[in-house]
Amino acid sequence: xxxxxxxxxxxxxxxxxxxxxxxxxxxxxxxxxxxxxxxxxxxxxxxxxxxxxxxxxxxxxxxxxxxxxxxxxxxxxxxxxxxxxxxxxxxxxxxxxxxxxxxxxxxxxxxxxxxxxxxxxxxxxxxxxxxxxxxxxxxxxxxxxxxxxxxxxxxxxxxxxxxxxxxxxxxxxxxxxxxxxxxxxxxxxxxxxxxxxxxxxxxxxxxxxxxxxxxxxxxxxxxxxxxxxxxxxxxxxxxxxxxxxxxxxxxxxxxxxxxxxxxxxxxxxxxxxxxxxxxxxxxxxxxxxxxxxxxxxxxxxxxxxxxxxxxxxxxxxxxxxxxxxxxxxxxxxxxxxxxxxxxxxxxxxxxxxxxxxxxxxxxxxxxxxxxxxxxxxxxxxxxx
Length: 384
Ligand SMILES: *Cc1c(COP(=O)(O)O)cnc(C)c1O
Fold this sequence. Notes:
2 domains, Aspartate Aminotransferase, domain 2, 5-stranded mixed sheet, binds pyridoxal-5'-phosphate, Aspartate Aminotransferase, domain 1
C-alpha cells in the first residue's frame, strides 16, 4: 500500500464496531471487567494494548499507537503527553549513575537542558559530539544510549545517521533519534537502523497547532525500558489528543508535500536577497548538509533558518514586527507560517546578541508562496 492510501485507511479498527467511518473517542479513568480472569489477563505484563486503567490508554490511544507503529514500520508505539515527555522518557529509561549518554551538539534546546540540569546531577555522564564527527572514539563501555537529532534544531546541521547506527551497533549500543522534522513520510528512521524514533506529534502529525503529544516507535525489545518508565511515571497522553492526532495523520503526507514545495520556494527566494547572508536548509543544493539529506531523507519539511546581514537590535525588531503573515511564536508544524529569532544554545546566556550572525527561524505554512515572499519583502525593508 502506498503512503496516502495507508494514511486514509489505517487506524480505523475500532470504527467498525461503532458503525462509523472514524474510530470513536473513548474517555476513561476506570476500566471495568466482566470477570476476574479478564482483569488478570489485562494486567498481565505482556498485554500492551488492552485497557487496564485510564493512565495506560483507552481504545482511542491504542488505535493511534497501532496506526503510528505500522506507519513507522515498527512493532509498537507509545503515546506521551508531549514531545518533550517522550524525549524525557527515552533518556531517563537509559540514564543512571555510572551510565554515559552520547548526544549530538545541536539537539533541541530543552533536550540539552534536561540532560545537563536533571540527569547529570543524578550521576549520568552526558556528552555531546559535533554533527560531522565519527562517533567511534566517543563510545565507552558504559555508553547506554546514543541519541541523535537530524537535522539539528535551529542550525539545521545534518549528521550521518547510518554511520552513527553502524558504529553503535558494533558495540551493542541502542540508538534513539528525534525524528520530528522528517516524520515517517520523509525519514524512514527504523530502515536506517535507528532503534527508537521519537516524534513530537504536536508538530506535523497533528498539524493544526492545537495540542501537545509525543509518539515513540520501535520494537517491543527496544521500547521495553521506555514503556516501563512511562507506566511508572504516568507519562500518558489524553485520548482526546490521540483522537485529534489520528485525524491529523490522514492529511500528513498531503500537507508535507505542500510545506516542502513552499519552503523550497522561500528558501530559494531568500538565498538571493542582499539582506540575507545564508540560508540553512539541507534541501538547497548548495547547503553543506545537502548530500547527507539526499541520502537519508525523501523530502524536506517547512522549518528552516537563515542568517540576516549584520543589523542593529532595533532594525531586527522592526523586521520581525513588520511581518504580517508570519506569526511570532514557538513551535511549528501547523498550517500557519511562523517566525522565531533563533538563538543557538551557546549564545543563550548573552543579554545582548551580536549584530552579526542574527538567525531567523521560519516555519513555512500552507499559505501561497507569493504572499509569503511579499510579506518577507516588505519586512526586510527594515534591515536594508
Ligand atoms: C518541538 C520539538 C520537540 C518537543 O515537542 P513538544 O511536543 O513541544 O514537547 C522535540 N523535538 C523537536 C525537534 C521539536 O521541534
